[in-house]
Amino acid sequence: MENKKSFNITFYLLIIPVLLWLIILIVLPHIDLLISSFQSDSDAGGKVFTLEHYAAFFQSKIYWLTFVNTAAYAIGITILAFIVTFPVAFYLTKVISKKYSSFLALLLLIPLWVGELVTVYGWMIILGDHGVINEFLIYIGLIDKPINMLYTNFSMSIGLLYISMLFMVVPVMSTLESLDDSLIEAASDLGATKWTIFTKIIIPYSMPGITSGGIIVFMLVIGDYVAPDILGGKSSLWFTEQIYNEFLSTFNWGEGAAFGFLLLMISSSIIWLALKLTGQKLEKVGS
Amino acid sequence: MKKLAISSVAIATLLAGSLYAGNGTLRLITWKGYAPKALVKKFEKETGIKVKVTYSNNEEMIAKLRATRGGGFDLAQPSVDRISFVQKKFHIYHAIDYSKVNTNQITTAMVKAAKKISGVDGKVYSVPYIYGTTGMIVNKKLAPGANDWSDLWNPKYAGKISYRLKRPILIGAAFGMGYNPFALYSDKAAYKKLIEKVTKKLIASKKYVKTYWTSGDTQKAVITSGDVVVESGWDAIGWQVHDKNPNIDFICPKSGALGWIDTFAIPAKSKNIKAAYKWINFILQPKNAAYVTNQSSYMTVSKDAPKYFNDKIKTDFKRSYSQKDIDNIKWYDALPSGFAAIEAKALDKIKAAQ
Amino acid sequence: MIRSLPNSPVYKYTYRFYVICFFIFLVMPLIAIAVLAFNDSSSVALPWKGFTLDWFFANTDQRTGLLADDGLIQSIFISVKTAFYVATISTIVGIAAALLFEEEKFRLKGLLYFLALTPLVIPGVILGISILLSSTLAGSYIEQKFGWDIAFLSPSFWLVVLGQFSFGATYVMLLVGARLKKFDRTLEEAALSLKATRLQSIWYVTIPFLRPAILGAFVVAFLISFSNFNTTIFLIGSDPTLPVDLYSRIKFSSTPILNAVSFLIVVFITVAALLSLFLNRNKK
Questions:
Q1: pTM of whole model > 0.80?
Q2: Closest by Cβ to B2, choosing from C156, C215, C238
């Protein structure tokens, strides 16, 4: 390196904006989140250390029940997203001719870019008492009273699945692309059944894609607010709804911060566990 | 191609910038129906001030102003009982300078009430605007006997009941159970106990509830469709529905309707206080105030507005309120600090229960 | 099982049927929105009452179409404006981050890279509340200490831009970084040996090579910002973006005007997607 000096200038030019971004918008806010979760307003107007926000969480059954419920749903929907989309990803990469597959793959991306609010609204129209499905079933005479679908756990799950599943398809497709067809052909020639090929070759090979897809899906579902709030029923309390309430309708920011921190903890630990179990690194998830 | 896309985005951005720039803007955060389009247009024409309306409700309005420390809006419209405890803790409002308010347009009793309830340390933080009651909206054909808060957990109407899971239902239910929650405003522990009792009641009867409505429009929709026959509701909404279906009407519950007053309050960092006062004085002019009432059925505090009311409002009012009902209205008093948290916990509990 | 292997017809058709069902599931909400945007009825529900363009153009007492609804038009503009700034800042910082992590060596690089990736796995809600908390803290501190009221430290347009940028930059970094991995470093070295400064070589050699990825990343950041709700909701002041506006309208009451605006978004995205497919095909 003969021009070491200018090299350094460039280095600082690159690192300063990146440091500003990461420190001001990622690190400091999360430290503040942690600190706020241990603070409450004293009567004198200052801040005092307290454990009451976490105590409130562990003492009231509804909070940790909602918490567990949300996590369980998120895991369930992640698995469901895998089951529903894997055959499609496989079909698009390995079965159908290349000519159609790029078109269909593009079709997959449209709901993703259209945005969650629009698609959730679409489901609201479809599932309502006077919605598309009910009106259709009444029209063909299958039922005479609308089936109650909207504002239930069912409609909420459909919405959550819909908004998140495409994040499973994309990474799975990109790993499947690189799977050499001849591997499957060879196994088939040697008399392996479809099931054997599926469990012994395809799944292990696409595991990196499934993991990164799963992590993104899980993160989106556990942190979602729109689908549970718009499509969920009178009892479907989602943990993020608690956080929104603390911040946007009651003004208990301390408790909201504590809940937020708990959510962050559970989502990171489940993601960490998933990475450990599959022997992957976070760096891979991004690609 | 992409260059074209980017430059068109840039142009659109510049356009957007010029659209809502300028000092002559009044950013109003209010309830639906409180700032009708026609009056906004009229005001803009008269004063040259552009009005930007954001719809909200009490909880959101206060949370938003707390987050911005009283910024972001030039004029807000919280209910009178939710002002003082917020002001004491967060200082998010400007005191009202009553010399700038045209008080002879307003009913004296309402000004007095606003001054008393929203007063903090000798300063007043609100001007009254609209009042009304929360009572019940009942389908008299399908639920002929329903006449009290307690009918919201009457098994007779199982699966056909609705209310909003917010503060008024806790208060209404307490009255329906024979208590007077307002009498306990001085005793936090006793109030907490009472709310716990109410919570238990509402959880036990949750299975009867069809859905929790969330806004004026949704409360209208559920009762109009026939899915619900008894619900808690606002007088104005009940009357709007009555026009379309005479079987449905607003009634005052036997144990008392809950009286509220919505007000004007000026956020601490309002950038256009002058425009805020202009709007207050403009919309309370008898003719304008009567227009609001005629449009939405919400009762204005404007003194001479009743002259311009249409007959429908007058008959609606008479039909729903006997003198006895009026005397029995339970007016909300200023909510002491710390009580909102008790109620919020209770509402969470009810929402989460199975 | 795959193209080159023979399959029983039952297997083949069941599989095809499943995939067709999946795509119906996929497009159903979009179709429902589109169809009901033209229904001549004030409620967003069937039955079909005839075709109308009212929800786009009407301006009467009973019906307000999209073009006559100032609030909605304004929130579209605000969204475009927000997305433009977010995409610009994210692109600049994202490129810097990609160059930094691909080409430089320094201490703590691993930790910094890990931090840069975290927005992928932090729920948007958490980013929203933590940025709200810290900006409020900083804002009140500055206000009490110096008496300055700094607008972007309380919920407002610029706080939204900052909040969305915090994760937008990660996506740009990954997209640009992926392209950078394919970059032939000898080109840069050649430029350096011709006495170009490091900055010059980046500007004249590396950036032109990255251009397609940069444009793509800009568009992605723009779209991510345009549709974001979870983070934005905590940071908005008096200027709602389109998703926030849509949300509060859905909560209050839905009219087909929401379908009209959703329909336009769907059309816009579809056309853009088809265009990109078409352009890519021509290149090959």
A1: yes
A2: C215
